[in-house]
Amino acid sequence: MKVEQIYTGCLAHAAYYIESKGEVAIIDPLREVDPYIKRAKLDDAKIKYIFETHFHADFVSGHLDLKAKTGAQIVFGPTAKPGYDAIVAEDGQIFKIGDYKIKVIHTPGHTMESTTYLLIDENGKEHGIVTGDTLFIGDVGRPDLAQKIVSELTQEKLAALLYDSLRNKIMPLSDDLIIYPNHGAGSACGKNMSKETTDTLGNQKRVNYALRADMTKEEFIEELIDGLTEPPGYFPQNVMMNIKGYESFDKVMAKSHKPLNAKSFEAAANETEAIILDVRHQSEFVKGHIPRSIFIGIEGDFAPWVGAMIADVSQLILLVSPVGKEQEVITRLSRVGFDNVIGYLDGGFDAWKHSGMEYDTVTSIAAEEFANRYSTIKEKVFDVRREGEYKAEHIEGAKHTPLNYLNNYLSEFPGNNTFYVHCAGGYRSVIAASILKSRGIHNLIEVAGGYDEIKKTEVPRTAYVCPSTLK
Predict the structure, then answer these.
(1) Are 93 and 196 within one domain?
(2) What is the mean pLDDT of residues 90-106?
(3) pLDDT band at 465 (very low <50, low <70, confident <90, very high)
(4) % of the chain exceeding 90 in pLDDT
(5) 451 and 412 housed in the same domain
(6) Is the dihedral of CA 296, 298, 302, 303 positive or negative?
(7) What is the CATH number of the domain that holds 459?
(8) What pLDDT, on the 0 to 100 scale, is given for residue 470?
(9) What is the pLDDT of residues 261-302, one digit of tens each?
(10) How far apart (Å, rounded) are the C-alpha atoms in residues 438 and 459?
């Protein structure tokens, strides 16, 4: 059976290409759809169906553009209510792709319309399941996202439904089925995903905490909800775009790919409410950047951090990008619904400097220098890593101000005295520094290389101890 996983690392996202006898199904496509069309042409095949496992929250799907360009039919699972023409399938309904069959298995819990697709090969053998966000490798989908859209739902109700879906619909299937999930490690749609992106159902029954045979529904709900953090602010907005529809990707690219010289760029920044988003490497940003610009580097977990830190997908954006990377940046922004780029700095940051424009810097020191200063500054250190990272180990005396909730901690940063910011490797600390400086807080020093470099020094470190374990 021909099943190809098309994985996009920056979003930890997997789409699927299924082909038989010149017919193709695409499952959970990304916003830019030309790669799927080109792939089908290589097989001299036609895309017949576009299956969606659910209304996605962490990215804008390409189903509408793919339908417009190929004539393929969009398929959702039971209870879905899309704002455009689509097939809303029945539980158990079968669709044919050449000699293959795809069976709809309604598996509510992550969302109400969440659906798993059972793949049946040309010999009638059940080959695998495309599980969307119902079942991951090492985890299951978080049950708190749909409640942001449907007020009467609670995460407890959704978790209970997910327990039933897993026990009654997924776990009775054959152990040798291959699991094809929608996400891998790094996605915010779960909390414990493996870096592996496929596995057998039998192995997951052995190693996935959520599939323990002796687990009660109450235990499942408690364990699933425990440790969930607030989802990124852009998630509900992406859901609504996927439900209601959106502007075509081609139109977004056409209006966004607009070069501006330094003076025009400055005028656009002054005359609009656009934020300046600088996507160069953090080492370049600290050496020089446009005042009040926000750094989120294209070489890191770009789209998720844009969504977490900017939150409002309608925000106007002006780009500072490495020369030649502008189209890639606009594409990656559009994947998470940020369709309002109004231009980019032609010639990159060098063009700004050569025009004699004012620019700012971030003070940054090496871990060795930080270690030399530690004894006198240990009460002024701020760790912007995630909660799990901080609890596992942190600098003795460091305050935890996680990046994704940085705005909640602004009052904790000293107003006058110099303080120090670090993350794991330097990417997130520069994001934090740029946001603080954009809010008028300039008395900071960033530690280059972050905790990875600090732990090579003699700076004392400690682990978080749960109060209940103390005697």
Answers:
(1) yes
(2) 98
(3) low
(4) 88
(5) yes
(6) positive
(7) 3.40.250.10
(8) 42
(9) 999 999 999 999 999 999 999 999 999 999 999 999 999 889
(10) 30
Tokens representing 295 are 């750094």
Q: Find the DSSP H helices in 228-365.
A: 235-244, 249-256, 262-271, 282-287, 302-310, 326-335, 348-354
Q: Which pair of structure tokens corresponds to residue 241?
A: 């775009």
Q: CB burial class (10 A; 0-12, 13-18, 19+) of residue 388?
A: exposed
Task: Provide the pLDDT confidence category of residue 468 given band limits of 50, 70 and 90.
Answer: very low
Same domain, 463 and 440: yes
As a residue count, the chain comes to: 471
> Quick one: 358 exposed, middle or buried, by C-beta within 10 A (0-12, 13-18, 19+)?
exposed
User: 322: closest CA among 300, 341, 291, 344?
Assistant: 344
Asked if residue 243 belongs to a domain, the reply is: no
Q: Which two tokens stand for residue 439?
A: 């809010």
Residue with tokens 């930080």: 370
| Predicted confidence (pLDDT) at residue 330 exceeds the cutoff of 80 | yes
Q: Tell whether 213 and 253 lie within a shared domain.
A: no
Mean pLDDT of all residues in 38-67: 97
Higher per-residue pLDDT: 231 or 76: 76
- Give the residue among 35, 48, 101, 103 at the shortest CA–CA distance from 74: 48
Side chain identity, residue 333: L
Euclidean distance between CA atoms 143 and 368, whole angstroms: 44
Q: Which residues contact 420 (CB under 8 A, 6 or more apart)?
A: 370, 377, 380, 381, 382, 444, 445, 446, 447
What rounded mean pLDDT belongs to the chain? 94
Q: What is the pLDDT of residue 193?
A: 86
Average pLDDT of span 375-389: 94
Regarding whether 417 and 388 lie in a shared domain, the answer is yes
Q: By the 8 A CB rule, do 320 and 295 touch?
A: no
* 331 and 369 housed in the same domain: no
Q: What is the pLDDT of residue 469?
A: 42
> What one-character DSSP code corresponds to residue 229?
P
Per-residue pLDDT for 321 more than 70? yes
Does 187 lie in the same domain as 51? yes
Domain, as residue range, for 334: 248-354
- What are residue 365's DSSP bridge partners? 447
Q: What is the domain count for the chain?
A: 3
